[in-house]
Structure formats: C-alpha cells, structure tokens
Protein: Cytochrome C oxidase subunit IV
Amino acid sequence: MSASKALIGCWLGLAGLSTLSVLLGGSGSGLLIAAAVMLAALGKAWLITEGFMELRHAPRLWRLLLLGWPLLMAGGVLALLPAQG
Structure:
C-alpha cells in the first residue's frame, strides 16, 4: 500500500472515530458510554502513532510509551468517574 493510501485510510479512521465519540457523548452519560468514548480515543491514539507518525517500525519502547500514556489517562478518567447504578 502506498503512503498516501495509508494516510487517507488513517484519516478516514480518525474521522469515523471522532464522529463516533461525538455521537456517544451526546447520547447520555454513564460509565459504559464513557468507556466507549475512551476506547474510541485509544483507537485514535493508535492510528496517530502507527499511521501518521509512522512508528510501526520504531523501537518497541517508543511505541509503548506513546500508547501507554493515553491508556494511563483513560484508566485514570474512568477510575475517577462515580459509579452509577
């Protein structure tokens, strides 16, 4: 696959995940919806690091650091949300 096709695919994925995040965010509140929005954000972080930044062939440490940070932040946000029953 050429670089331009890969970037277009990444862009389409980011646009789709962003649209999904907006739709989920407007559909209500709750832990499950927040988790779905965070999962979409993690997908976007993966697309950015692997696609746009082209780190798929970078050393494993760089990839773990760049993907670990959004994972840590999403976990922190979900841990701070009050449990709704």
Q: What stands out?
A: The helical segments are 3-25, 31-52, 60-80. Residues 1-84 form one domain. The chain has a mean pLDDT of 88.
